[in-house]
Amino acid sequence: MTAEPTDTVTLLRELEPVVEQNVNRHLSVAKEWFPHEYVPWSDGTNFDGFLGGEAWDESQSKISDVARTSLIVNLLTEDNLPSYHHEIATTFGRDGAWGTWVHRWTAEEGRHGIAIRDYLLATRAVDPVALERARMRHMEEGFSNSYDGVIGSVAYVSFQELATRVSHRNTGKLSGDPLCEALLAKVANDENLHMLFYRNVLSAAFELAPNETMKTILEVVKTFQMPGHGIEGFTRKSVEIAKAGVYDLRLHHDDVLSPVLRQVRVFERDDLSAEGEAARTELANFMSDLDKAASRFTERRDAMRAKAAERGKILPQV
């Protein structure tokens, strides 16, 4: 078995033809859309402060508390784009096909935060002061890539983009507002196309360095965190979001990890060394344990919802 390329310069060079092909593919299928078309501007009114408008009050919001929480988490996650751009530009570079992708991805991600914030403020769905303070705190923390090298970065975003797509789509459904759902469907479609790009590059990395890629995927799957995990109160918010079915262990296992692992043929490969096989076995065991944990979570949630229904209380859920 020939030595696998693992240094960043070699991997970037050898993957560049695949990156170029997938940039061209992305540009051919990505559809232009405009955030302003999904914001009900005529509903907007001035807030208190410099313009002397009306102060925000929770009664003005037409969405549930958990939908508001999910929208805020999604928005604050998108807000950290400068840090994300820095991380991928540092890893992938700003030249050639890699650089073309880095800048295109950044431009597309930028409109997500614009669109969601404009919608939330125009509809008075959130406290604008609390939202701005939360944005400042979160962005001051920044974001650092937890995985070294090209393969680690590509593996992480392959899962993360799909996870974000699931979160946006389900948040839109939970909102109860057809306009919000339409807006977040647009955002989710962008995220899906980004996932396809990264997943295709990850597949190519598997062909170049199967054992290194297998070990890296194991590490990423075992330690995966959403990019917004640094948001203040994220653990409490994520539990609330999971209880509503926006993003939970079952979705993480079934709709995020499993599809990517299947598409890159993790459990079908026949080109692994003993070290790579050991990583695959550990990955299979981890996925099995995660599946069991997801089942326990959904069972407890179903029981909680049943008890709430007996008391005549309807819990928000997707």
UniProtKB/TrEMBL annotation:
<keyword id="KW-0479">Metal-binding</keyword>
<feature type="binding site">
    <location>
        <position position="78"/>
    </location>
    <ligand>
        <name>Fe cation 1</name>
    </ligand>
</feature>
<dbReference type="InterPro" id="IPR005067">
    <property type="entry name" value="Fatty_acid_desaturase-2"/>
</dbReference>
<feature type="binding site">
    <location>
        <position position="109"/>
    </location>
    <ligand>
        <name>Fe cation 1</name>
    </ligand>
</feature>
<keyword id="KW-0275">Fatty acid biosynthesis</keyword>
<feature type="binding site">
    <location>
        <position position="109"/>
    </location>
    <ligand>
        <name>Fe cation 2</name>
    </ligand>
</feature>
<dbReference type="GO" id="GO:0006633">
    <property type="term" value="P:fatty acid biosynthetic process"/>
</dbReference>
<dbReference type="GO" id="GO:0046872">
    <property type="term" value="F:metal ion binding"/>
</dbReference>
<comment type="similarity">
    <text>Belongs to the fatty acid desaturase type 2 family.</text>
</comment>
<dbReference type="GO" id="GO:0005829">
    <property type="term" value="C:cytosol"/>
</dbReference>
<dbReference type="Pfam" id="PF03405">
    <property type="entry name" value="FA_desaturase_2"/>
</dbReference>
<keyword id="KW-0276">Fatty acid metabolism</keyword>
<feature type="binding site">
    <location>
        <position position="191"/>
    </location>
    <ligand>
        <name>Fe cation 2</name>
    </ligand>
</feature>
<dbReference type="GO" id="GO:0045300">
    <property type="term" value="F:stearoyl-[ACP] desaturase activity"/>
</dbReference>
<protein>
    <submittedName>
        <fullName>Acyl-ACP desaturase</fullName>
    </submittedName>
</protein>
<keyword id="KW-0443">Lipid metabolism</keyword>
<keyword id="KW-0444">Lipid biosynthesis</keyword>
<comment type="subunit">
    <text>Homodimer.</text>
</comment>
<dbReference type="InterPro" id="IPR012348">
    <property type="entry name" value="RNR-like"/>
</dbReference>
<feature type="binding site">
    <location>
        <position position="194"/>
    </location>
    <ligand>
        <name>Fe cation 2</name>
    </ligand>
</feature>
<dbReference type="InterPro" id="IPR009078">
    <property type="entry name" value="Ferritin-like_SF"/>
</dbReference>
<feature type="binding site">
    <location>
        <position position="112"/>
    </location>
    <ligand>
        <name>Fe cation 1</name>
    </ligand>
</feature>
<feature type="binding site">
    <location>
        <position position="191"/>
    </location>
    <ligand>
        <name>Fe cation 1</name>
    </ligand>
</feature>
<keyword id="KW-0560">Oxidoreductase</keyword>
<keyword id="KW-0408">Iron</keyword>
<feature type="binding site">
    <location>
        <position position="161"/>
    </location>
    <ligand>
        <name>Fe cation 2</name>
    </ligand>
</feature>
